[in-house]
Amino acid sequence: MVVLEIVMLLVVSLGVLFFFTRKALVEESKMDAEQRLEGTVQHVDNILMTVEQTTGNVYYRLLEQIDQPERMSFFCRKLVESNANIEGCAIAFKPNYYPGHELFFNYVHRKKYNSPELVFTDSAVNYPYTKHEWYMETMRTCKASWIDPGQNTDSGLEPIITFCLPVRDRSGECVAVMAVGVSMDQLSQIILETKPSPNSYSILLAHDGTYIIHPNHEKLAGKNIFSDPDVAESPSAQIAAKEMLKGNTGNMSFRIDNQTKYLFYKPFSRNIVPGRSMEALKWSIATIYPKDDIFGEYDHLVFHVLGIVFAALLVFYMLCRITIRKQMKPLVYLTESAERIAEGHYDERIPDVKREDEVGVFYNNFQLMQKALEKNITKEEEQRETLRKHHEELQKTHQKIQEDSQVKATFLHNVTNRMIAPAEAISKSVTNLCDNYQNITLPEADKEIINIKQQSETITELLSHKFDAKVPNGSAVGANYQAGKEDNHE
């Protein structure tokens, strides 16, 4: 019971401790994720800003030589070479801007990621740029903007996001578009190098759910989060994606690949810089933590704490059990002694115990009770033995009296049988005398009297003979007989 109460106390205490610890971990992870998300946003935005600034610097030089089409390739190359984040640069003029050129297009891009080797393209024959969104939208609005990868149909190259800057002539008319591409693969590698935990990663989504940043490069080729097989099989992941695209800020958990993950998300916000084009990108950035990255050490700590607590409780239980058994040993002796006393062993010796506590006092009092009980039982047995002897003597006396009564009854029966004839003769003579006393003669009367006398002597002799032969001297029957005999003589 003591261990059970301690277990209940520990369960409540540890439960409260673990609950608030887990809550604190979530809050700490949330704060850390918010800071890292903000850092990631700043990192991405810094890359975008360097691209914008580099493009702006080349733009102003390009305006000075806009009437020299042969220089456009030079500006494209310089722009790519001056910024390692730029994957490629294209300058596309409106049709017939240059005499003799219906379409004029120059494009320079790296042969592969982070390679100094460049590839030059100056023909629009195989690339009808006027039908692409980045060109049409920029010429329509005549504003600088970033084009999402889903709208970039340059399928021959690796997926990129494109910064489009309108080129105006001296009259202010929009005559060309500078399109500077930033590799999504490059952005992903840069961002993933600063991941907050060993197994976490960050993602950046366009307004329509297209991946801009993702650790899996295969998902960067214009793939949409809702067409992702992993997300499609997880309703909770779809809800998380929808929350991101709504432009909300928050966190939630979801399951994917039979693993619980935590998502911390916020809208992608750009730094406000004077002269910068601040159109809304409608991007959303998120950091995804596997559960073990947040609660792994916590779960291990909980496991170790529970193991230590269980071991401590087991040791405590054993110590309590040993101590209590030792303390309760006198009660065991008392129980065994009580059972022996109940079986009738009143004189059995109870071992001494040197204890001064309540158990010791109770044990000593039980010893005194057992001794008093033994003394009383012994006295009672002695009294019972005395009563038994008296009972035996009474039984013998009663048996003797019954024998005397039987002798008396037999004696009286025999005497009575022998006395019937004389008594009848006496009765007959007395009746004759009484009935005929007026008519009877004296000789007849003497004869009857003599007969009465003879029969009386016969009865007297019979009684005397029977008592002398059968009745013991000193008995009650003999005493009664002697008294009767004297009365008869009288």
Question: What does this molecule look like?
Answer:
The chain has 490 residues and is of the alpha+beta class. Helices cover 57% and strands 15% of the residues. The strands form two sheets. A six-stranded antiparallel sheet has the order 3-2-1-6-5-4, with helices on both faces. Strands 8-7-11-10-9 form a five-stranded antiparallel sheet, sandwiched between helices. A hairpin with a 7-residue loop joins strand 2 (104-110) and strand 3 (118-121). Helix 1 packs antiparallel against helix 2, helix 1 packs antiparallel against helix 7 and helix 8 packs parallel to helix 9. Residues 151-156 and 471-481 have low confidence and may be disordered.
Output the keywords.
490 residues, alpha+beta, 6-stranded antiparallel sheet, 5-stranded antiparallel sheet, 15% strand, rod-shaped
Helix content: 55-70%
Strand ordering within the main sheet: 3-2-1-6-5-4
- Average pLDDT confidence is 79
Strand-and-helix sequence, N→C? Answer: HHEEEHEEEHEEHHEEEHHHHH
Kindly report how far apart the N and C termini lie: 102 Å
Low-confidence parts lasting 5 or more residues at pLDDT below 50? 151-156, 471-481
Which structural category fits the helices and strands?
Answer: alpha+beta
**Treating each run of at least 4 consecutive H or I residues as one helix, how many helices?**
11
Q: Biggest β-sheet: count, sense, barrel? A: 6 strands, antiparallel
Shape label: rod-shaped
* Integer-rounded radius of gyration: 67 Å
Strand content: 5-15%
The total beta strand count reads: 11
